[in-house]
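Render this sequence as a predicted structure.
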Amino acid sequence: GEEHYNCISALHKSMRGSDENASLYWLARMLEGGEDPLYVARRLVRFASEDIGLADPLALTQAVAAYQGCHFIGMPECEVILAQCVVYFARAPKSIEVYRAYTNVKECLRMHTGPLPPVPLHLRNAPTRLMKNLGYGKGYKYNPAYKEPVEQDYLPEELKGTDFFKERKT
């Protein structure tokens, strides 16, 4: 019932709050109560990117490994795999930078009126002669071929200067 959602919320918030003891408690309460360990593991995968993100990019690897471990061996053996992952996440630094930036991109797309801006010609692939003649790929700078950073626009003209990591585009 509702307690299923209350417990996963408590686990999530305990890890977010870096409380390893409470995190273990809520995990054990769920598993000992019969919760599907793969459900918990799926939530940990989401947590790895949503709450830890780039502060510790290895968190996602930990979460996927925990999911796979649970899938391979099941309960009760997988409980320690989940416990290790939960403690790792509670102790990990947190960052929602990517989560917020992606939310800003989605908001930008939802708020846009009319057709979406076209992909700039220099960013388009030109697999045919006609596409090359139309200017597809013309002027594109292949970054690995340069020793220094390449000055090149990657967003449509209408979004030039937008930084989804710093602002909301409306």
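Summary. Residues 37-52 form the longest helix (16 residues). The chain is about 55% helix and 0% strand.
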